[in-house]
């Protein structure tokens, strides 16, 4: 008897249930996001400073410096090392849904959608966010 619902995330994509190539689970994904954003905040503060008493209207673009650095980290490291520093530290990588290198343009579009946040928190049965579905990528254990 067959079921229309998959037994594990990534089954419809031909991914194994566990181990190398399986879908990166939420705990690892959130951990990687935390690592990446913490690194971006530290780098942004080191290079652009931080004024804890500045009013938002006086802070200007430096208010967005951590998010800009976060986006740069994503766009630079996904095509070069296969994932962001947080992804790689936690044993994951970004690749095409059918397997292989995501190229240069996909990490850019994926990152823009990730920064918007909403596409990243809406997942399908394969635990792929809309940001991954839009560009045909998947975050897998590596």
Question: How would you summarize the topology of this molecule?
Answer:
Layout: H1 26-48, H2 56-59, H3 65-81, H4 85-89, E1 92-96, H5 105-116, H6 118-121, H7 130-135, E2 137-141
Antiparallel strand pairs: 1-2
Helix pairs in contact: 1-3, 3-5
Mean pLDDT: 90
Spatial shape: elongated
Structural class: mainly alpha
Q: What value does the Rg take, in angstroms? A: 17 Å
Order of secondary-structure elements:
HHHHEHHHE
Q: Report the uncertain regions.
A: none
Number of helices: 7
Kindly state the percentage of residues in helix: 40-55%
Taken together, the total number of domains comes to 1
Region (Disordered): 1-24
Keywords: Cell membrane, Membrane, Transmembrane, Transmembrane helix
Membrane topology: Multi-pass membrane protein
InterPro entries: Pra-immunoreactive, RDD, UCP021697
Quick recap:
With 142 residues, this protein is mainly alpha-helical. It has helices at residues 26-48, 56-59, 65-81, 85-89, 105-116, 118-121, 130-135, and strands at residues 92-96, 137-141.
Describe the fold and architecture.
Keywords: Cell membrane, Membrane, Transmembrane, Transmembrane helix. It is found in: Cell membrane. This is RDD family protein. This protein is mostly helical and 142 residues long. The chain has one domain (11-141). Helices cover 50% and strands 7% of the residues. The protein contains 7 helices and 2 strands; from the N terminus they run H-H-H-H-E-H-H-H-E. It has a two-stranded antiparallel ribbon with strand order 1-2. Helix 1 (26-48) crosses helix 3 and helix 3 (65-81) runs antiparallel to helix 5. It starts with 25 loop residues before the first helix and ends with a strand.
């Amino acid at each position: 008897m067959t079921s229309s619902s998959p037994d594990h995330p990534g089954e419809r994509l031909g991914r194994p249930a566990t181990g190398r190539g399986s879908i990166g689970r939420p705990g690892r994904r959130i951990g990687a996001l935390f690592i990446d954003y913490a690194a971006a905040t530290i780098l942004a503060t080191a290079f652009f400073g931080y004024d804890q008493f500045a009013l938002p209207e006086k802070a200007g673009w430096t208010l967005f410096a951590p998010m800009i650095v976060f986006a740069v980290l994503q766009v630079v490291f996904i095509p070069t090392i296969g994932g962001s520093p947080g992804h790689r530290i936690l044993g994951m990588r970004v690749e095409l849904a059918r397997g292989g290198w995501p190229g240069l343009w996909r990490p850019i579009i994926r990152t823009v959608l990730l920064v918007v946040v909403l596409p990243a928190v809406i997942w399908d049965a394969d635990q792929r966010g809309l940001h991954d579905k839009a560009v045909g990528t998947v975050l897998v254990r590596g």
